Amino acid sequence: MGRSVIGGLVAIAVLVSRRQPLLPPREAVARTLIVAGPVCVGFGLFSAIALRSVDSVHGAVLTGLIPAATAGVAVWRAGERPRRSYWAALAFGLAVIIGFAIVQGGGHLRVTGLLLLAAVAIAGLGYAEGGAMAREYGGWRVISWAVILALPVTVPVTAAALVTDPPRHVTVSAASGLGYVGVVSVVVGFFAWYHAMARGGVARVGRLQIAQPALTLAWSALLLGEHVGWLSGASAAAVIAATAVGRNARVDTAAGPGAVAAPDPPAPGEPARCPARAAS
After folding, report:
1. Contacts of 54 (CB under 8 A, 6+ apart)
2. With 70 as the cut, is the pLDDT of residue 107 above it?
3. Residues 159, 237: contact at Cβ < 8 Å?
């Protein structure tokens, strides 16, 4: 929860420096809350609780489901229609990941696995809704508004946690990790992510996350010294391969095949961009 507090401070600084309102327009508040709940609270909270019991290698494989979750919600919230080949590839990846979780749990889905699956499901909701909103308001505004709207929840929860369970023996690596996820994972990374989904489509760009399991496995080994077993590596490779099979599947939009989303709208005082040039 504390990472979203850090992200909220960064978002306030960004919006103030750009002379933008700190809160979304009234008609966009409800949709921004749909982003704030999953992205700023739910995913971080569920995954952090789960990762106290399992290593990040285990979590890396399960988070390979995020592209599927994002695509599923894109159908509901963003008006996109992936083709059958897309769903077939993601369904295979889902089967692999659930099988991996059951094997790792000794024949059952453990609570930690269910928490990670819940985190993945709600992450897809936040990603898809944010990507759809970015078409109208710009990705950097959407995520900034979201983490600010989450502050009434994240600040008191973080304060209560500091009082009831104060940190002890904080290492430099732990503090650096918190700073990274607070600045990059919660805010800055989403500037590019939501902008990309607004330009290229939520489902189409969301499948680029097929690289996330492999990258997480690599960073887990390099930064945390965790062992990547053959089952984890094979499961991650299967998920990546399955999703890559459907990477070229067409994704239609409600406006018709080949529709191109609008670029980020300019901030007040910025010159308007020529649509033809922005799309080039």
Report:
1. 104, 112, 116
2. no
3. no
How far apart CA 149 and CA 142 sit, in angstroms, is 11
Tokens 């053959």 correspond to: 230
Q: How far is CA 33 from the centre of its chain?
A: 15
Question: Following CA atoms 20, 140, 143, 205 in sequence, which dihedral angle do they give, to the nearest 10 degrees?
Answer: 160
> How far is residue 98's CA from residue 201's CA, in Å, rounded to a whole number?
27
The residue type at 96: V
Q: In whole angstroms, what is the distance from residue 208 CA to residue 26 CA? A: 32
Most confident of 46-55, 78-87, 169-178: 169-178
The answer to whether the CB of 2 falls within 8 A of the CB of 110 is no
Q: Is 70 exceeded by the pLDDT of residue 252?
A: no
Give residue 174's identity as a one-letter amino acid code: A
pLDDT level of residue 17 (50, 70, 90 thresholds): very high
Closest by CA to 44, choosing from 136, 191, 146, 170, is 146
Give 136 or 68, the one with higher predicted confidence: 136
**CA 251/CA 104 separation, integer angstroms:** 34
Backbone angles phi, psi at 253, to 5 degrees: -115, 170
Which of 86-95, 137-146, 163-172, 271-280 bottoms out in mean pLDDT, i.e. has the lowest? 271-280
Task: Give, rounded to a whole angstrom, the gap between the first and last alpha carbons of the chain.
Answer: 40
Per the prediction, the chain carries an average pLDDT of 75
Tokens of 240: 């990546």
**What's the mean pLDDT in 98-110?**
62
Distance CA(228)–CA(237), nearest Å, equals: 12
Q: Tell which residue, 10, 9, 77, 88, has the closest CA to residue 38.
A: 77
